[in-house]
Amino acid sequence: MRTVDIIAKKRDGHELGRAEIDFIIRGYTNGDVADYQMAALLMAIYLRGMSSEETVALTEAMLHSGEIVDFSELGRPRVDKHSTGGVGDKTSLVIAPVVAAAGVLVPMISGRALAHSGGTLDKLESIPGFRTDLSLAEFRSTLEKVGAALIGQTAEIAPADKKLYALRDVTATVACRPLMAASIMSKKMAEGASGLVLDVKTGSGAFLKNENEARELGRIMISIARGLNKECLVLITDMNQPLGRAVGNSLELIEAIETLKGQGPEDFNCLCRELSAEMLVMGGVAADSEAGRRAYDKLISSAAALAKMREIIKAQSGDARVLDNYDLLPRAGQKRELLSSESGYVQVIDTEAIGHASMLLGAGRARLDTEIDLGVGLTIHSRIGDKVERNSPLVTIHFNDADRMEESANDIRSAYKIGPDPVEPPQLIKAVLR
Ligand code: URA
Questions:
Q1: Is the pTM above the cut of 0.90?
Q2: Does ligand 1 lie within 6 Å of residue 115's CB atom?
């Protein structure tokens, strides 16, 4: 088999066989297939698509690129959640401690910032000392001791996704259903969870803008999970505006901590509550979704979830004093308020442009070797349906580089559409697929 023939086959719109997909993934993981060849194949897949058989074969090849962890000997349910990516989506930072505090194990393998969307790993690395690169043995022992462990793809677990994820990020090949399904499910099926709650986002800030496409992705992922004997549930949720108020790594971490303290923004808290409730049901500690929501409220109001977050941070070598002192986190040197140029109601926020604006400031990567600025980002003051006056603040930009700030401000200005008519804010939870 030759890599170039496989690229040409997909370029010409033909279906790849399982042996060809295995050959490519094995070769890319061990370095025989070059980045430039894989980039060409990714673009061919992006343009030509993949059948469901190809998607399953790709997922399995990526899953088997590393070890598959088995935590069944821990004797407790292990439930994780994953999001398809959005702007301001820091739910993992709240959900992991909440669910672990209820006694369900949360083995979580997360990603870094991808295109305009943020990544849990980068947000966690805002915490001085926090290690997301635990070895498999450390992952297991932290999970056993604390009840949750949050790491990235490693040389041991789903290494193919680690390389492909970074390459897709810089080759405009993220928003592709088979690639997303294989990326998410390969690492999630490898991490030793018995059940998985998926948050599939749709809207202007999601990779899949159209709700039907999001539902289709949800169904593909449920069928992959079932094929591997795992429980799986999908929430289709809105991403037509940033989630919560904070966008950018340490700003989002602060918002997550505030939420653990019971002071989070309503929409963000609501999504954390819904996702946690389903995880608690799947983990067998809540009888139904309503009981799960009540448990969430109690874990927040009793500060049990906050205490669990402290344990997680300490176990992963982070400085847990950040929970009480946000000055210990990386912060941007300067701030600028962007004001509305007219009065009216916020009609639309192009949320991908908002994510892009944050990335331009340095919160995400434009190239494989870009270093992230953990302190920069945005505070969103005005959301869809809000009434704004001329000169009232839309967004605060937290920045370190004035040129980048100007570029980012232009993106934000064009992202907001303000008009005279009142509008209803979008519904946050659009559907549940079981
Ligand atoms: N999250 C992932 O892990 N992979 C994707 O492709 C998109 C979101």
A1: yes
A2: no
